[in-house]
Amino acid sequence: MKKILLLAVASSLFLFSCKDDGTVTPGGDGTGNGSGFKTEQKQKSAGFYFSGNWCGPCGLYGKPALHNMSNKYGNDFAYIACQLNGSGATDPFNCADANSMAGAFGVSGVPTIQVGAAGDQFQAASGGTDMETKLDGYLAANKAKTPVANIAVSYVLEDGAISVTTETEFFEETSDDYQISVYLVESKLIANQYVSGSGWAKDVEFNNVLRTKLSASVVGDAFPAGTKAKGHIETMTFGDFLQSTWKTENLHVVAVLWKKNAQGKVAAVNATIK
After folding, report:
1. What does the alpha-carbon distance between residue 104 and residue 250 come to, in Å, rounded to a whole number?
2. Which residues share a beta bridge with 166?
3. Secondary structure of residue 3 in the 3-state scheme
4. Alpha-carbon gap, residue 66 to 132, rounded angstroms
5. What is the spatial distance between Cα 135 and Cα 198, in angstroms, rounded to a whole number?
6. In the chain, where are the structural domains located?
7. Less Cβ crowding at N or C end of the chain, within 10 Å?
8. What is the dihedral of CA 255, 261, 264, 268, to 10 degrees?
C-alpha cells in the first residue's frame, strides 16, 4: 500500500540551554551497575515516528507496529510521535516542532519511522505489512551495539514550567562533535484514528506525542568542541513554560544525543526517556 502524502511546514521556536563543561573521574556504582560510571553502559534506539490520525495505513500498520515494539523493548526504544497534518486533513496533536522534525528528515509520506543509534545512519520503516518486522530488526540490532555515551535525565515541574538537566557521560575518549536535543512528549491522549479497510476507530490512545522541543533546535544544541575524556560528563539545562491543556502526570522527557556520521549527516548516538 502506498504511503499517504502529507504537507510539512518547517518552523522553529527558540528556547534556552546552558552548558557546564567539566571532566570527572568515574567512581561509585551510581546507575552504572558497578561499572564505575554514573550512567548505564547501554545502547538504546532513538525513534521518530511520523503519522496522522487521518491516515489509514497509520492506523492499520503504523500504530500497531509502534505499540508492539514499545511493549517489547520498553525504555530501550525512546521514540517521539510526530503527528502531522495532511493535504486537507488536520491532526489534533500537530505542532510546529513536529513539522520541523518532518522537514529535518525529509519526510514525504506517513506512516514512517526513522530509527537511529550508535552514530550510524538512520534506518526507515514505512507503512506496509512488513513495517513491524523491519522495526523489530532495527531495534534488536541496535541493542547489540556498544555505546559510546549515555544520558542521565532529571527534571522538575513547578508553577507551570519545566526545568530539565541532562548529564551525558562518555565511556571512551572521543574528539567527535556532539549535540543534544530534548523533547517534551505527552501520553494517554485520546482521539479517533482512521484505519484502512475499517474506517474510523473511536477513542484511540496516542502515546509519546511531541508537544515541544526544549533545545533551541529540533536536532540539538552543540556541546563545546574538543576531546571528551573517558568518564567526561557534559551537563546542560533546558526549560520552558507548559501549556495549560497538557496533563503533567502524562508528560515525559526524551533526550537524544547526536553527532555527524561518516556520511556527513546528523545521526543519533543514544537516547533516554524519563
Report:
1. 27
2. 153, 236
3. coil
4. 8
5. 24
6. 4-273
7. N
8. -20
Query: 187 φ, ψ to 5°?
Result: -115, 175
Residue 73, pLDDT score: 97
Q: What is the pLDDT of residue 1?
A: 40
CATH of domain 4-273: 3.40.30.10
CB 110 within 8 A of CB 58: yes
Residue 15 DSSP one-character state: -
Residues 6+ apart with CB under 8 A from 166: 151, 152, 153, 180, 182, 235, 236, 237, 238, 255
Rounded CA separation 45/113 (Å): 12
- 8 A C-beta contact, residue 45 and residue 135: no
- Residue 234 in this model has a pLDDT that exceeds 80: yes
C-alpha cell at 100: 520541523
Phi and psi for 160 in degrees, rounded to 5?
75, 20
Q: Is the dihedral of CA 164, 152, 206, 63 positive or negative?
A: positive
Cβ proximity of 131 and 125 under 8 Å: yes
pLDDT digits (tens, 9 = 90+) for 150-172: 999 999 999 999 999 999 999 99
Beta bridge partners of 152: 167
**Contact indicator for 181, 255 with CB cutoff of 8 Å:** yes
User: Can you give the pLDDT at residue 26?
Assistant: 40
Place of cell 545521526: 267
Grid cell digits, residue 254:
526524551
Taking the C-alpha atoms of 182, 186, 192 and 197 in order, what is their torsion angle to the nearest 10 degrees? 50
* Residue 185 · residue 198 · CB < 8 Å: no
Tell me the torsion sign for CA atoms 183, 168, 123, 66. Answer: negative
User: What span, in angstroms and rounded, lies between the C-alpha atoms of 211 and 190?
Assistant: 15
Residue 163 exposure: Cα atoms within 13 Å on the Cβ side? 5
